[in-house]
Amino acid sequence: MSYETIRLDRDGHVATLTLDRPERLNAFNDTMVQELVAACDEIDGDDEIRAVVVTGAGRAFCAGADLGRGDETFDADARSKSDGDGADRWANGIRRDGGGIVTLRFFDLTKPLIAAVNGPAVGIGITMTLPMDVRLLADGAKIGFVFARRGITPEACSSWFLPRLVGMSQAARWCYSGRVFPAAEAAEGGLGELVAPDELLDRARELADEFAGSAPVSVALTRRLLWRGLTLAHPMEAHRADSRAIQALGRMADAREGVTSFLEKRPPEWSLKPSEDLPDVFPDWDQPTFH
Q1: In this structure, what are the phi and psi dihedrals at residue 196, rounded to the nearest 5 degrees?
Q2: Is it the case that residue 108 has pLDDT exceeding 90?
Q3: Which residue in 93, 114, 228, 95 sits closest to 160, CA to CA?
Q4: What is the overall mean pLDDT for the chain?
Q5: In whole angstroms, what is the distance from residue 254 CA to residue 259 CA?
Q6: What are the pLDDT digits (tens) for 214-226?
Q7: What count of other Cβ atoms lies within 10 Å of the Cβ of residue 260?
Q8: Domain with CATH 3.90.226.10 in the chain
Q9: β-strand pairing of 14-19 with 6-11
Q10: Would you say domain 6-211 falls under CATH 3.90.226.10?
Q11: If you ran DSSP here, which 8-state letter would residue 29 be given?
């Protein structure tokens, strides 16, 4: 599939998803919303892809929302007149936040996501990385949860993700001030790992290759257990899900292969596919709808 605002490249079991509007510092627009969701669908449909690196073209990761509409940038009513919104973009008079549409799709992805933040990541440029599993931050990059400086509020479900990742106090400091700060401060605050710029993509690929070496269905189900586990009210709920997962996978071919290959001191040959063999260990999970 061809895209206008992103690129999706494959190398072995690793895909690289590149935000590709370098002339606009990869600024986020409605086309990018649609294409990122479509790329996630493509990734989930390709069982050869086992891990994904997300980065930006040129000198930026993503400079935030495209402000080309000027003072109407965040005015949903003004935008709806020309954007050709579908019915799924509106509910009870509320236009769904495009960043949230993307981060929810990242949340549901069956493959691990590694953000390789190569340059400025501001607004949606940083909040889109919050449902990714690892954030590698190039030393010298600038980060900013700048919403209060633009007269709006955080988006992309970041009011849910950010405090869970860095704690309430740190999230409040960054969001209330709206200031732009160096990647070193972001790393110190627990947002990611600081990496030398010339080592960023190599480090991301190294991690991706490590993830890709594990059983794909095991990784997909582990990702689901970890992220959905953040929503559970009691450890017993996690115990139930863990027990279902162990029982389901323990009966499958990859569990036998994992043990046999270890005992035979050889690389494993995984046969299960996330698109076909992922068991449901959250039978009571009710995916919320927007209303």
Answers
A1: -60, 140
A2: yes
A3: 228
A4: 95
A5: 9
A6: 999 999 999 999 9
A7: 12
A8: 6-211
A9: antiparallel
A10: yes
A11: -
How far is it, in rounded angstroms, from Cα 61 to Cα 30? 17
Q: Collapsing DSSP states into helix, strand and coil, what is residue 52?
A: strand
Neighbours of 247 (CB within 10 A): 11
What's the rounded Cα separation, in Å, for the pair 145 and 249? 40
CATH architecture of the region 215-277: Orthogonal Bundle (1.10)
Phi, psi of 49 (to 5 degrees): -85, 125
Alpha helices by DSSP H, listed for the chain, are 30-44, 76-83, 98-108, 124-127, 158-166, 168-177, 183-188, 200-212, 216-229, 235-250, 253-263, 274-277
Burial class (CB in 10 A: 0-12, 13-18, 19+), 264: exposed
DSSP 63: -
**First and final C-alpha spacing in the chain:** 31
- C-alpha 169/C-alpha 99 separation (Å) is 23
Distance CA 289, CA 231 (A): 16
* 147 φ/ψ sector (left φ>0, alpha ψ -120 to 50, else beta): alpha
Which ranges in the chain are annotated with CATH 1.10.12.10? 215-277
Both tokens assigned to 39: 């790329």
Region for residue 112 given its phi and psi (left: phi exceeds 0; alpha: psi -120 to 50; beta: otherwise): beta
Task: Give the position of tokens 């929302």.
Answer: 65
CA pair distance 89, 185, nearest whole angstrom: 36
Which amino acid belongs to residue 102?
Answer: V
Lookup: tokens for 241: 């899900």
pLDDT tens string 67-105: 878 777 777 777 665 565 666 788 888 889 999 999 999
